[in-house]
Amino acid sequence: MYVTYIYIYIYIYILVLSIDKIFLIAINQPGQNVTLPCRGSRGTIIVVEWSRTDLGSEYVLRYRDQQLDPENQNPSFRNRVDLLDPQMKAGDVSVVLKNLTTDDRGTYECRVVQRGTRRRKRGSLKTRPVSSVVLDVVPSGQFVRVCDCFLLFFTHLKAV
Questions:
Q1: What pLDDT is attached to residue 20?
Q2: Buried (b) or exposed (e) across 24-39, using 16+ Cβ within 10 A?
Q3: Which residues pair with 67 in a beta bridge?
Q4: Adjacency order of strands within the sheet including 153-157
Q5: What pTM does this model have?
Q6: What is the CATH classification number for the domain harbouring 59?
Q7: Where is the Ig-like domain (predicted)?
Q8: What is the pLDDT of residue 93?
Q9: What one-character-per-residue DSSP string does 46-91 give?
Q10: pLDDT at 125 (0 to 100)
């Protein structure tokens, strides 16, 4: 178990070099909902894409053309993920993942394209992630340590 945490910390350290914000979330009760945090700038958001690093070209959630886009969404996330704030006030593009299972473990990345950038709107986004979330879902009764990580600053929080 401690070896797993060592690997997670090494992975986070490597990610820190390329991502603005990294979050580690661990849930010890499958079936719960969890918010995966992400915040873009205050400008007009054109595209939001949430992906999980092991899904290839499929994604968790994509918003474009002022609506959610179900094309190429991984089937396991259909009807289980929504924007926390559909109006994305103040650049908040966090998502709520509902009815967690142990299959939801993984590293989630949030990418945002805003008005005024020269990124294309179609296809998978190749921009740098705005945030990355390492999610661990463990069976009930196991101890979980939660860490909120911003760059190289780690603050341990209470178990969930």
A1: 57
A2: bbbbbeeeeebebbbb
A3: 64
A4: 67-68, 61-64, 45-52, 106-114, 131-137, 21-27, 146-150, 153-157
A5: 0.72
A6: 2.60.40.10
A7: 31-131
A8: 94
A9: EEEEEEETTSTT-BSEEEETTEE--TTB-GGGTTTEEESSTT-GGG
A10: 59
Q: pLDDT value at position 26?
A: 74
Q: Are 50 and 68 in contact (CB under 8 A)?
A: no
Question: What tokens were used for 19?
Answer: 């991502």
Total domains, the chain: 1
Q: Which amino acid is at 143?
A: F
For residue 75, the enclosing domain spans 2-157
Q: Is 130 helix (H, G, I), strand (E, B) or coil?
A: coil
Neighbouring residues of 143: CB distance < 8 A, sequence distance ≥ 6: 28, 159
CA atoms of 67 and 51, how far apart (whole Å): 17
Of how many residues is the chain composed? 160
The C-alpha angle 60, 62, 112, rounded to 5 degrees, equals 110
Residues in CB range of 146: below 8 A, 6 or more apart: 24, 25, 26, 156, 157, 158, 159, 160
Give the count of beta carbons closer than 10 Å to the beta carbon of residue 79. Answer: 9
What pLDDT was estimated at residue 17?
42
Mean pLDDT per 10-residue run, the chain (160 residues)? Answer: 50 47 76 91 87 93 92 95 92 94 93 69 64 84 50 40
Identify the residue whose tokens are 């069976």: 139
